[in-house]
Amino acid sequence: MNIVIVESPAKAKTINKYLGSDYHVLASYGHVRDLPAKDGSVRPDEDFEMSWDVDAKSQKRLSDIAKAVKGADRLILATDPDREGEAISWHVLEVLRKKRLLKDMPVQRVVFNAITKKSILEAMDNPRDIDEPLVDAYLARRALDYLVGFTLSPVLWRKLPGARSAGRVQSVALRLVCDRESEIERFVSQEYWSVLANLTTSQGAAFQARIAAFNDKKLARLGIGSKAEADAIAAHLNAAALSVASVESKPQRRHPAAPFTTSTLQQEASRKHGFAAARTMQVAQKLYEGADIGGETVGLITYMRTDGVQIAGEAIASAREVIGADYGNDYVPEKPRHYSSKAKNAQEAHEAIRPTDLTRRPRDVARYLDPDAARLYELIWKRTIASQMESAVLERTTVDIDAKAGGKSATLRATGSVVRFDGFFALYQEGKDDEEDEEGRRLPAMTQGEPLSRTSIETAQHFTEPPARFTEATLVKKMEELGIGRPSTYASTLQTLRDRDYVEIDGKRLIPQDKGRLVIAFLESFFNRYVEYDFTAALEEKLDRISAGELSWKDVLRDFWRDFSASVHDIKDLRVSEVLDSLNEMLAAHVFPDKGDGEDPRKCPACGEGRLSLKVSRFGAFVGCSNYDKEKLEGKTPNENPPHCGYTRQLSASGKDGDGEIADGPKVLGQDPESGLDVSLRTGRFGPYVQLGEEAKPKRSSLPRGWQASEMDLDKALQLLSLPREVGPHPEDGKDIVAGIGRYGPFVLHDGTYANLESPEEVFSVGINRAVDALAQKRAKAGRGRGNTPPLKELGEHPDGGPITVQDGRYGPYVKWAKVNATLPKGNDPQAVTLDEALALIAAKIEKTGKGKPAAKKAAAKKPAAKKPAAKKTTAKAAAAKKPAAKKTTAKKTATAKKAVAEDDA
Fold this sequence. Notes:
The protein is 37% helix and 21% strand. Helix 1 links the parallel strand 1 and strand 2.
């Protein structure tokens, strides 16, 4: 028997069909070992020795593999054809060697770029050994990521409370986003004007032309800087005689884009279908592993983690045949096209992403796939076919127009282009990151010297705009250009930035959050070298050279660690106040922007004497007055040294909190009619709030979700300050029902039971009947128990047994299997979750926690208990004899537990 190891169960099932009964294919479910998330997992002082950990789930996989290997004839490692795949094979092999299960058994490594019968059988006929340099590159990358993360992150926690983590690639990607935001903030808009002429030819055909020169001076896009200049040019054009000075037509050829790499697939899927990078990779993984097409499971695309742009010769030949059949021989170029990558550090070791069978058109497979998979397959198919089609031929026409009057001259220019042969345009055009019409317009026929008529002259004012924020697609493109990260890391890097709340996505645009900007400012101030683009790219290049066998991985680690550890040591005695002083200076434009009134932007708007500065708490950073003293404000220390000021706000000087804006200082909304005290709108570390009076402990109320600070008035503020409000006595027991707004939103409360209301506004109007009904529903739901709540969706059976369902939880929807609850990512529709996505979420949760057992096993363990009636035959003497043994077992368990606790405490 030949044992074959792959990553996923879906792949295992398909490959087993192709190989037959002499082969037994098992899945490792991804990585089987990882570095434990604790100090000492990588030990630089021991020549970078690593400690690997196997979680409970992976232990079961390895046990299954070990059991299958016993008595087998051959072990074949068939994991993915990249660095991660090589590492998984190496890990499996290392575990089996330590168990001494292999002995003289032949061990072979095979790779295939597509899950098709032909590719797999060819791979089996051409085995090789484990690629040691590729494994070394994996070990170096894993050690580097660990050393950076587990060395820098604790420094962040100590010096910048509230920060979450730092990473070798993650932090550089975040810097790109933050640098772009700084560009936007520094951007000074420039006024410019355009002058547009609406003209007609002698034949009556209309077209438009723009001013290109005036009084022998060429005018660029920003050449007209004021209304006076624009009006002067418009007056001249209104008085001038217009005629065609020249007509020039030039042919242009537009060539198709290369087939997809990981990066370009993520970019195009984002532009055309709005997919996040992580979603694109999830769907591509499914297409790679295969789908049931007419009773046979086949892989639909080649391996989707690649930076290569070439495709195999047989695929090129197949593409040319499809083009000829579908579009005609005019669309088949004379010679096949060959591409090379322009990305920095691209290795191009693997094929580009393409369909495994180009004759399998999108319409042929759409009915077998879910909508996202069908759209992505169609995108990959069209891009691959288009890459081998004939170029599009355009004719670009430029018409210059003379406008002379009163001894002055001006030149107008009209441009347009016409597609003479559509070529690959007939099938596919690459998406753009902007909305500009790059092809222009078609111009009517004109001849040199032809007089033109003027319909109108238009002038318009414009202002230059700042650079656009990154989208996931453009950030991946930038990272690829700079050589930062690798194809397999882009999606996970972007996901980490979102999970850490370092960036948020608003209309596809990545907006850095204050927490992220603080982290980058800190790293640039004290670890600048390690977030430099060139340094990170150079390190990626070294990793690639390790995989090529050109560098020793431990030499690279030694060089890195020597300088990196010295940098960390240099700031260990740095005080938090020194860190904040540096960040005050570095983030001044963001946190303390110039108001344009000549006043010091750091002057406290509340007391007028203090100076604003960054401050930190265990919840993160905020801005406070230099006279801010929390202890005095809370009355914990005597107020002996005034002044003291309670002014605080969030980092953003505008006070933006997603719900509106608040001015820098407290905004008085009016007076409370009962007490006569001022009611003010303020912002603090936790967002906007309203306050009554200025006492030591004034009454306050945070603005509920959905309420905008910019729309707050006195009535709304008084409503908030009046909470909680009494609704009335409950009809059953006479106890009061109270309505209010709490941590989890609006509620009604009765005798310890909280029931949520639909909106904050309902708190102020809810009556006794609605409140009683809401409380009754809550109690009924609580009585059913969380475990009996009906699922939102049933997905099917887990490979290890037991149903997988989608449930609605207190903190949002989640996937449930046995005792494993995996929260759905923000924004995911619970009704759209597929079984494959659920399996991935469950596997990730198990890998993270090391917990999770199939429900089927639990049920099996309880079966013997069904034979209870037989216990009646047991004599009293036998029952008495059993009692001491039970006590002994309990005592032993207690002693073991105590020992474990003692070891943990030690």
